[in-house]
Amino acid sequence: xxxxxxxxxxxxxxxxxxxxxxxxxxxxxxxxxxxxxxxxxxxxxxxxxxxxxxxxxxxxxxxxxxxxxxxxxxxxxxxxxxxxxxxxxxxxxxxxxxxxxxxxxxxxxxxxxxxxxxxxxxxxxxxxxxxxxxxxxxxxxxxxxxxxxxxxxxxxxxxxxxxxxxxxxxxxxxxxxxxxxxxxxxxxxxxxxxxxxxxxxxxxxxxxxxxxxxxxxxxxxxxxxxxxxxxxxxxxxxxxxxxxxxxxxxxxxxxxxxxxxxxxxxxxxxxxxxxxxxxxxxxxxxxxxxxxxxxxxxxxxxxxxxxxxxxxxxxxxxxxxxxxxxxxxxxxxxxxxxxxxxxxxxxxxxxxxxxxxxxxxxxxxxxxxxxxxxxxxxxxxxxxxxxxxxxxxxxxxxxxxxx
Length: 403
Ligand SMILES: Cc1ncc(COP(=O)(O)O)c(C=O)c1O
Description:
The chain has 13 helices and 17 strands.
């Protein structure tokens, strides 16, 4: 089913180098619909005050808008409790929070943390840092040639020392949607909690954290048509309760004296300082926008774009798609002949087409596929088959120029 919501996104109405802008970099960050932009401006024009502390009308109103967003997100991802939704700056901060708070209090020397070979640097480096601090070790699940996780290998990695599993729900390079429900069940058989990096999956799939039974789930607003600088850590109550605070400061305390401080209840224990109020409220608007269109409709549309683009790209001689798993998001990475991905990106840019070229913050994955970099086209709900036709035409131009 074709949908067309491009008109809701003012930024997409411009031209670049005299050509209509074709935005194919939604895995990196999505564009914002007018309603999100309006919410931001309206919030600052009409509602702003600091929250959770004022007794006057404006502050009460801002607090209500902020907490309504939390409740909406709870329902959107089917979390059991509102206090399981912690606002952070984004996926990266959410993962660092869990690594430093849960990891610091739980990991000991020689404990093992399982990650997959397709993780974004944001789901590698925080675990390396905590491993260095505690003496824990990382174990890495192999990736098959088609870009799927090697489940058989995953099962062999568990030992008595396994303390944590951190996995991406979907790869930002390969597009692979991982069988995380099954992988979580396997980890739970070994009494091991699982963090799911939902940065890529959240905006393009329906998420039910209770059905997945994940222990933590993380995502970023800016990849889901909302503002930058805001994201969510979902955590099960039992785990969040036993974790020490990550940042100290205002809002996260119950009492403070120079001898000792006690901490606020969830989720405020993890929200130190004045939060990003405006962006939380505008993120709420983005999610209402998605809900009104319907995630099922968006998923079907992006699947159609993926099929169409895969067919068209496969018609190009010497083009190799990196990641051919049967279950993929609307993300296609590729290398073309001997042309450097940055050269392809530059030629496409001159045609008004925005793609990402590089290592995509997944250097170990580049190594796995023996490439230094690749070009990635990724789709959002505003893309159309015409955008893909423009990409193919741009690639023909690149081939002409470099041969
Ligand atoms: C799979 C994955 N994890 C984590 C991140 C980091 O997200 P953010 O930069 O919003 O914190 C990204 C961003 O590209 C991603 O694709």
